[in-house]
């Protein structure tokens, strides 16, 4: 399951999360973001209990894009213990994205 979060929820949902979290920084006008959304949703089910999936709109919350120096979207950031572990920029097909996520999780 993917949680759509706001900046007010970021601290609790991402920074203080017990398990690793992957955050999709996206916008409604972004074509690659729309292509990635169903893949992100599918993977959230596959990684249930291992990795928490969240989304935050850079369109609605540009301050969050600034905070994490997001220069292009979609941008996925994997966090563990409140720290950025990995950054995945741009659209990736499902298998490629799974490999990148597995690689990030192997660093934990």
Q: Please state the average pLDDT score.
A: 96
Kindly name the structural category. Answer: alpha/beta
Approximate shape? globular
The CATH topology corresponds to Glutaredoxin
Count the beta strands.
5
Task: Quickly count the domains.
Answer: 1
Order of helices and strands: EHEHEHEEH
Widest beta sheet: strand line-up: 1-3-2-4-5
Gyration radius over CA? 12 Å
Output the CATH class name.
Answer: Alpha Beta
Low-confidence sequence ranges: none
Q: What are the key terms here?
A:
alpha/beta, Glutaredoxin, five-stranded mixed β-sheet, globular, 108 residues, single chain
Q: What would you say this structure looks like, in words?
A:
This protein is of the alpha/beta class and 108 residues long. The protein starts with a strand and ends with a helix. Strand 2, helix 2 and strand 3 (52-57) form a beta-alpha-beta unit. Strands 1-3-2-4-5 form a five-stranded mixed sheet, with helices on both faces. 40% of the residues lie in helices and 26% in strands. The longest helix has 16 residues, at 31-46. The protein is built from four helices and five strands. The chain has one domain: Glutaredoxin. The chain has helices at residues 7-15, 31-46, 62-67, 94-105, and strands at 2-4, 21-26, 52-57, 75-80, 83-89.
């Amino acid at each position: 399951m993917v949680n759509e979060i706001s900046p007010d929820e970021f601290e609790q949902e991402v920074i203080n999360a017990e398990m690793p979290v992957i955050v999709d920084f996206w916008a409604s006008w972004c074509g690659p973001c729309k292509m990635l959304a169903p893949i992100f949703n599918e993977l959230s089910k596959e990684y249930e209990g291992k990795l928490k999936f969240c989304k935050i709109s850079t369109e609605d919350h540009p301050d969050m894009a600034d905070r994490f120096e997001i220069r292009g979207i979609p941008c996925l950031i994997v966090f563990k213990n409140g720290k950025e572990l990995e950054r995945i920029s741009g659209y990736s097909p499902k298998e490629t994205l799974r490999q990148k996520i597995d690689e990030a999780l192997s660093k934990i």
